[in-house]
Amino acid sequence: MNNNELQNQRPQAIGTCTLVGAGPGDPELLTLKAVKAIQAATMLLVDDLVNEAILQHASPSARIVYVGKRGGCKSTPQAFIEKLMINAVHDGETVVRLKGGDPFIFGRGGEEVEHLRALGIEVSVINGITSGLAAISSLGAPLTHREHAHGVVFVTGHAKPGDKGTDWRQLAATARDAKLTLVIYMGVSGADMIQTELLTGLPPHTPVAIIENASLPHQRQALTQLDQLTHTLQTTGLKSPSVLVVGDVVQACAQIFQTDQNQQTAPTLPLHANM
Are 154 and 183 in contact (CB under 8 A)? Predict the structure, then answer.
């Protein structure tokens, strides 16, 4: 029997599968469409960074399977997760693949959609608020601004094995020339290298915000400048999951730190006088 005959004998998908963005963590940042999908699910495959409070929207009869994936930690293999999704759909389940942030921004949602569609399973996607946006917004600053940033780049600091990753020197030059904000996900472990490479094209006093656990009650953050990024991480103890925001838009955060005495923040270093 050839491959085409095997494919023709594949069981028809009778359930459904939806990739749902759970947002940055705060349950109140879920979209209405996400809540409805979670409520309707008979099976949820839940990522590590999804807030447990979000699962309160699930039906009491729904099966909840935790498929944790976090950089630097033991994770559920991606191929195993996709196999669970496929088997559940063929079993007639209403599957929700619940991901932190947005499924299509560093959530490997694209890979999952491609794999399932290749097997004849159509997948719906419900977007969520990505942590890079929620992080800087929580400090009262934008990602774009007509005076300071003409665009924004979302970039990962954690390349897949065998991939040399981002050309940080080229990115720094582009960000400088085009006035772009850089939002770096999963960049804490490689912060020393990222700092060194970005300094080849960006000024040492370029403002940087570090936000840990964005939107959650235990969120912590620090303001610094590019040439002090690694030192700030060491002295504040800020860890993953953190977002690094690099660019002049971060200037707007300084006023928030100075005026909001009730907000718990990590210690900060003085920013450049021209900010």
Answer: yes
